[in-house]
Amino acid sequence: MSMGVEPSRAPLAERLRVSEIFLSLQGESTCVGLPTVFVRLTGCPLRCHYCDTTYAFRGGEMRSLADLLSRVAAYQVRHVTVTGGEPLAQPACLLLLRQLCDAGYSVSLETSGALDTTGVDARVIKVLDLKTPGSGEVERNLYRNLDMLAPRDQVKFVICDRGDYEWAREQIAQHRLVGRCELLFSPAWGQQDPALLAQWILEDRLAVRFQLQLHKVLWGDEPGR
Prior knowledge:
Helices cover 23% and strands 23% of the residues. By secondary structure, it is an alpha/beta fold. The chain has a 9-stranded mixed β-sheet with strand order 3-1-2-4-5-6-7-8-9. The radius of gyration is 17 Å and the shape is globular. The model is unreliable at 1-5 (pLDDT under 50).
């Protein structure tokens, strides 16, 4: 039984709509392979063509921040990722991130980059998913978020085809991202041949980290993984 404040009694500013909380191995980013608690918030204003968490667009359950911290603590691991949906679509996400950091966790935020990241606690590792043309949401990118990147942050490009690759390469050059933070290239699952993407990166000597979605290699599209 949770020792946190009952969701119905917590002030609205201290509640979040949550799709799921689960323990898994981090499947992406520079923390890949580490046991991580995922807090998946409900709702997203984007509709990327390759989205694999459409079940988080709606539904979910209102939870108090105290309850969420209690549930995270029960897993007894150091790393926590707040994801979605688009977690920043709920204003109370900022407070959750701060409280997780205050509790001593290593906290990362997976965000589309379409919403302002100004209020995100500086201790949080931002994993900014810059939307490629193949996502269908490239016009939603909020490029000023790139100006707020810290060395610990990461920019992810989900590559659907050669056009996406060339676009991502141009963005890296245009915004001078090399050396500012970690850059991640991930093949869109079931769309872009991973070996071919790896070949393009090597041919261009591109200073990015190639990554596969480890959780999908292990468990496929199974939710809660």
